[in-house]
Design goal:
9 strands, 9 helices, two-stranded parallel sheet, alpha/beta, 7-stranded mixed β-sheet, Glycerol-3-phosphate (1)-acyltransferase
Length: about 280
């Protein structure tokens, strides 16, 4: 695999795999998951009969994907829904939770709105795969929270990428969007942290191979009712950051791409840090 060179800004909010789309917010009456029986049956058959087996085979062949500590975590969360937080380093992050981290649990992936609003057929396909867009207003926000509560109470998993943007094969910790860790306390559900790492290809064709993917899962982290909600949110966020830093700093973690700070952007930021 040929390495790539990326230049990022001082705030590390760049997105190197952006979907270009003018419509950034979902409609206020957006239906997060249709209730009709045809969609439910079709979605289940599409996921478990087609998408998950195919994606599992592709990822195993191209990246030799492996999950560490999954058996222990699944035992801890056998009788409850949970929220899984992960670093965002691959386009395939959109299906890895459902195919590897949380399987066979039905998994819903929280996504930026523009991912789904490209066109109608693409939106239906992503819905069937469990993609859920972030809301854009009060009404859609209420429906969004209602949907998450319903799925978590049914022992499903909800995947969140607190970094929001994708940095391909990045091996460090990036800034987190505010509010990402409010959900465990809000829904009274445990959280699990996931860190995707990489291993350097070996063998005769190593120049053409993609890095191996090794995903580490933390033990379950539960919300604490002995402190106020905001403090609990910050506590869980801190535990997540510590976990990602610990795992991503492992010497085995292979940095494929080169990430360099834009010095011009840094100088502008120093002149006016509030912008």
């Amino acid at each position: 695999m040929k390495p790539k060179h990326y230049v990022y800004s001082s705030k590390k909010r760049d997105d190197f795999l952006t979907i270009v789309n003018n419509q950034r917010d979902i409609p206020s009456d957006y239906v997060f998951m249709p209730k009709n029986i045809f969609f439910k049956v079709g979605s289940w058959l599409f996921n478990y009969g087609f998408a998950i087996p195919i994606l599992w085979c592709i990822s195993k062949v191209t990246n030799h994907t492996k999950v560490v500590n999954k058996r222990k975590v699944m035992k801890q969360l056998k009788h409850t829904g949970y929220i899984i937080y992960s670093n965002h380093v691959l386009m395939s992050d959109g299906f890895i939770p459902a195919v590897f981290n949380c399987w066979p649990r039905r998994t819903y992936i929280i996504s930026l709105p523009e991912t789904l609003m490209v066109n109608k057929p693409f939106q239906i396909l992503l819905k069937m795969l469990g993609t859920v867009p972030l809301p854009g207003g009060f009404k859609s926000g209420m429906n969004f929270l209602k949907f998450l509560r319903e799925k978590l109470d049914k022992n499903c998993a909800v995947a969140i990428y607190p970094e929001a943007t994708i940095w391909p094969y990045y091996t460090g910790q990036r800034p987190i969007h505010e509010g990402s860790f409010k959900y465990p306390r809000m829904f009274d559900k445990p959280a699990v942290f996931s860190c995707t790492t990489f291993r350097k290809p070996t063998g005769l064709l190593k120049r053409f191979k993609k890095p191996k993917i090794v995903i580490y899962l933390s033990d379950a982290v539960y919300p604490c009712r002995n402190i106020v909600a905001k403090e609990d949110e910050k506590r869980i966020e801190k535990l997540y950051v510590q976990f990602i830093e610990k795992i991503s700093n492992m010497k085995e973690n292979y940095a494929v791409n080169d990430y360099v700070l834009d010095q011009r952007a840094l100088e502008k930021f120093k002149e006016n840090p509030r912008k």
